[in-house]
Amino acid sequence: MNNFLTTELRLVKACEGEESVVPDQPLIFQFWKDEADLFQEPTIFLSEKVVKVGSTPSKHTWEGAGYDLLSWFQWCQLSKIDWREATESDRSQFSDDYSQSASDPRTVNRKLTMVRRFYDFARTEGWYHRDIGDSLEDRHVGNRPIDHDALAHTRSAGGYTKQRDTLLLKEGRKDVIRPLQVKHLRKLLHHVGPTVQNSEDKRNVRDRLICDLGYSSGTRLGDVTKLTTLQFLNIAVEPHQQFMDFPLIVEGKMKVTRKVAAPGWLVLAIQTYIKGERAASEREGKKRGVKAITALFLGHVASKSAGKPITRSAIQKMFALACMKTGTTKKVEVEDVETGKKHVKTIPAHSYHDLRHNCAVLTYHVEKAQGNSEPWKIVQIKLGHKSLKVTMDTYLAHVSIFGEKQGVTDIRRLLGLQD
């Protein structure tokens, strides 16, 4: 019996021990009077296309996808539209209505995309036979100029075709730069550990080295997870070269390679990590059947991930926890997606990517202190920006937060760090 329009819809998270589901898997139920029944179609979609995909489960992602679909079905009920009869014009109206209450276009676009994905799945399963998804259009994307693409010989000559959902709202580019203040960065770095273990501080160094790469080399989150031991073991740093930069090749967005520069002192510290802390993690991993790999950063020796490469999410969690522990936080007003009530929540004030912003302003001051009349050109090269204008327009307003300090050649001295 089709009672979609007269039931109350609720999102429920599966409990441990329930058959055929994993803990916290989102389930959508239909409630009416004293009865309840599983809303099978969206629940199957969430299981097959959200929960069972990806190597790293994210229960927050699962829950978000569930509420995105739930908001669509509830809108259909308010509009007196059976979900099986909904059309692309209805999805467009949903976009208009929801954008009136959601200030961030990304939220609306996420919901629109999840709805389209659900109906694509429903169409293949034979549950739906109308036109949701017809707003997709093919757009030809040409290749980059051959002199700007080192892998041009591996790509098709005619470029490629990419599909675009024309209902999605224009988000616009947001060049929000948020480098950490010196006092916050110094406190956070001391919290995550030493760059090199010593008699006074025998804590693990991995997390500190990851942060050192961010503020001194401008490495992105994806860069860190792709670095290998071979890249560092092949570098020979002489005693007088500790403040020289050594190039590393990393694979960036769209598999385009670029260079980042690591200072000699950091290369030496990473080489020490490889022979010590990393080697211990690798040995522990082998005891558990983990195959040897060349990934630079591995799980801590005492953790379940010993011998395994660190993931992006693990780095994000590490950095977020460090911010919370050191008081580098901010308060935001959030709305409970289930009840609609608003409350104030304390969250980290920065992400790992913000260390890249610190790299930009720190490099500027180091270069200026050494007499470089065009410090932004070095910043451009270090961050891998194609255009100098992007570098200057994005970062120029933020260089003053560190003040003018003369005679500084070591980026660590600018922060007042000794280790």
Please explain how this structure is put together:
A hairpin with a 6-residue loop joins β8 (329-335) and β9. The protein starts with 7 loop residues before the first strand and ends with a helix. Among the domains are: 4-135, no CATH class; 184-328, hpI Integrase, Chain A, CATH 1.10.443. The protein is built from 14 helices and 9 strands. It is elongated, with a radius of gyration of 25 Å. It is 42% helix and 14% strand. The longest helix is centred in the middle third of the chain and has 24 residues, at 264-287. The protein has a 3-stranded antiparallel β-sheet, with helices on one face. It has a two-stranded antiparallel ribbon with strand order 4-5. Strands 6-7 form a two-stranded antiparallel sheet. The chain is an alpha+beta fold. The protein has helices at residues 40-51, 59-78, 88-99, 105-124, 182-192, 206-217, 221-226, 229-233, 264-287, 312-325, 354-369, 375-383, 388-395, 411-415, and strands at residues 8-13, 26-32, 35-38, 136-141, 160-165, 245-251, 257-263, 329-335, 342-348.
Give the key terms.
hpI Integrase, Chain A, 419 residues, alpha+beta
At the first level of CATH, the class of the domain at 184-328 is Mainly Alpha
Please state how the strands of the largest beta sheet are arranged side by side: 1-2-3
User: What is CATH's topology name of the domain at 184-328?
Assistant: hpI Integrase, Chain A
* CATH arch. level architecture of the domain at 184-328: Orthogonal Bundle
Secondary-structure element series: EEEHHHHEEHHHHEEHHEEHHHH
For the biggest sheet, the summary is: 3 strands, antiparallel
Radius of gyration: 25 Å
Report strand %.
5-15%
The span between the termini is 70 Å
The portion of residues assigned to helices is 40-55%
- What are the segments in which pLDDT stays under 50 over at least 5 consecutive residues? 146-154, 404-408
CATH homologous superfamily designation of the domain at 184-328: Intergrase catalytic core
Shape: elongated
pLDDT average, as an integer?
A: 83
Please count the helical segments. Answer: 14
How many beta-strand segments? 9
Which structural class do you get from the secondary structure elements? alpha+beta
